[in-house]
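Quick question about two entries, pasted in order.
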Amino acid sequence: MSLDPGPTGPRSDAAPGHPGAAPGPGTASDPGGVDGVVISTLAQRPELTGRLYEIDEDWPAFVGHDPAASTLLTWVPELFPASCVVATEGDRVIARGFAVPFAAHVDGREETPDGGWSRVLRWAFTDRWTGRPVTAASALEITVDTGHLGRGLSYRMLAALRRTAAQQGLPALLAPVRPTAKHLRPRLPMAAYARERRDDGLPTDPWLRVHVRAGGTVESVASASMTVSASLARWREWTGLPFDRDGDVEVPGALAPVHCDLTHDHAVYVEPNVWVRHRL
């Protein structure tokens, strides 16, 4: 569920775990930055764990109500700090990036499941609880403060997530990407949308384009990456729409229509994402 359409030099006298520290275990410092932005892992800067949601963000209200998102996502920074990154400018948090390691080579699993984002999140927690050796990492989210869009931070945060996975000895960072312009064409199947290319051969979608430029390969569609099911009253609250007729409803920010059922007083949204592989 990666987001954001756009993409410091270490100081030898900086103490480990603070801005400007030389890269070491658990560090995802951005060595090429010259604009005062420092990108670190939460293992390096655990004091920022409680500040990750200070960002001014514009996620659709319904997104956080996928069952996996509402029960597990908030625990990711605390339980997987070496896989999560944070960008700061001075004392302000301006971007966050979450990823989790998981075991893909287990019976009944694959590296790029149809269940996408929510499936790998559940697998990661199961693997941590059981102590199963991990074989890959999956990005979950990159969120950039709305006041800092257009600075290339999404690209740098993605590069930092790639570095954290490589530092853990994993061969790939996978990403169930949430294309940022797909909501403008919700009725177009995701497979067709993901195939669209510009004249230069790059994806037409801005966020998919960032991933491909960073070395990623578009592999497949996660057809049911997230699912949000709720009463019509909740959907009206989240969207401001009437939800007063049966059938598909186009909702701002949704990548596919939301199916409304008046008889049973509920609506269901199944979000498709696009699997991208970054070989490390």
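Here is the second entry:
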Amino acid sequence: MDKAETTSSPLLGNSSVTKEKNPTFFADWKALIKVGIVNSNLITTFAGFWLAVYFTNTAFTANWDIFLLTMAGSALVIAGGCIMNNWYDADIDPVMSRTKTRPSVTGSIPRGRILMMGVATSAAGHVLLLFTTVEAAVIAFLGWFTYVVLYTMWSKRRYTLNTAVGSFSGAVPPLIGWAAVDPGLHTTAFILFLIMFIWQTPHFLALAMKKTKEYKAAGVPMLPAVHGFEMTKRQIAVYIACLFPLPFFMGELGTLFMVIATLLNIGWLAIGISGFFTRNDLKWANMIFVYSLNYLTILFLLMVVVTFEFPFS
């Protein structure tokens, strides 16, 4: 453990970070907004926008202004929610290895300033979305409120169902993208929401298995920390199985999409079932986690690929 880690404390401010380890503001900002979460959510926002253009029979090139507002607004709302999460969790983040170097923990950015940054970023995002449609802004607010208030402040430290609560906020980005083009939404938009809602539970439960000791130390009642790995593995398998019928409600995307989506589901479920026979639960959890990342990327990019020519016509 290096010096910067041994002397860090959320109460010490900038003095807790050694000179050679002092992060730049840009690095701090990336940590606060959880840039990986923002990027992955923007992929699904883009897919929702793209498919809305496809289903409304309009040209993507005629909606560049709406597209830019949608992506920028969504990014700011998501980033604002993540900043608020970091601000609120500053007392438990020092316990976990993946969160203990955040500026909210090290004090490289004062907590009061982090709060203001979170509020300002969130507000700016909602304002930008209002220039698309009111519905897109309202959906974004529901996602933000769920993540910041219902998940971070209410359920995360109280209930094992915190994952389900947080999954709602993670499932709204494709709805934001869709509503920016088509406020009336479409059945496919809600299927995108369901895919994202269901996908998140095996993804985050696998991560929770890998970090069980840290969640216990932080007092966060994640399912594997409270009910053990066997219960968690059953939940993961059930949720993956629930993804199976969803591609068939997206028949308008074509046979190729349904076949590849089904194969992705079969592969993930096969790994899920193998968890009941493994002797190395943590290695299996890592396989589930890595597969989930590839699953999401491939599935949503596939939605764009199979409809690629249409939006530009």
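Reply: Residues 24-185 form a domain with the Tetracycline Repressor; domain 2 fold (CATH 1.10.357.140). The radius of gyration is 20 Å. Hope that helps.
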